Fold this sequence. Notes:
By secondary structure, the protein is α/β, with parallel strands linked by helices. Helix content is 41%, strand content 13%. Helix 6 (161-175) packs antiparallel against helix 9 (223-234).
Amino acid sequence: MGDIAGAIERGLTQSLRRLRLDRVALFQLHNQLGDAVGGRPWLQPDDVLRRGGLADTFDRLKEQGLFAASGITAAGDTHACIEVIESGRFDAAQIYYNAINPSAVWSRAPAGWNGQDFSGIIAACRRQRMGMLNIRVFAGGPLASARPPGRLAVLTSGTDVDNEMRCAAAVRHALGDAYGTPAQAALRFALANSALSTRVIGIASLADLDEALAAVAQGPLPDAATGRLEALWASDFR
């Protein structure tokens, strides 16, 4: 953190050497913005946007042809994320969005909402014509399986592992088995949001890949299923 710009440049050039590539399509700033969740590395918007800050570093490396597009991860403090997005300095953003926390697509959270409120993030990305990569489709695991994950890094405030498992159980109960396996239903929920450019999911085995492909073949969740989830969001998953 004492030489962030230098660390970024070294990380990129060393990665390109290991990959035996001259450039990559997307280079992503993964630090959380504003107040970080879970003690992770964080950056304030000023660290990114000030003269000589990280956005300038990204611009310089992009001009050198080392990558085609730059991105951020919209995690940490919502207002800090929106400030960086609205600067227009980046081409893409990773967006936290799933059946437990869909708030990034909202303009305002409904009454009774107790999770982290990402409202306005997708709208801000749209205004800047940014690509959007959906992360945490399975909430780190709880939406894909009733088994508690061996290690779950919670990325949002106002929750913990036990609460994520509780909310995921409520989602599974509300949807039943009418929309495929829990993992398929979770992915089909994410597919219903056409604003998102792509979905970033964890694949641990070929069986996981087959399950994801089956979900894509089934298509987005129907409105009736989403309506059941909306009732959960308004009632704190009770």
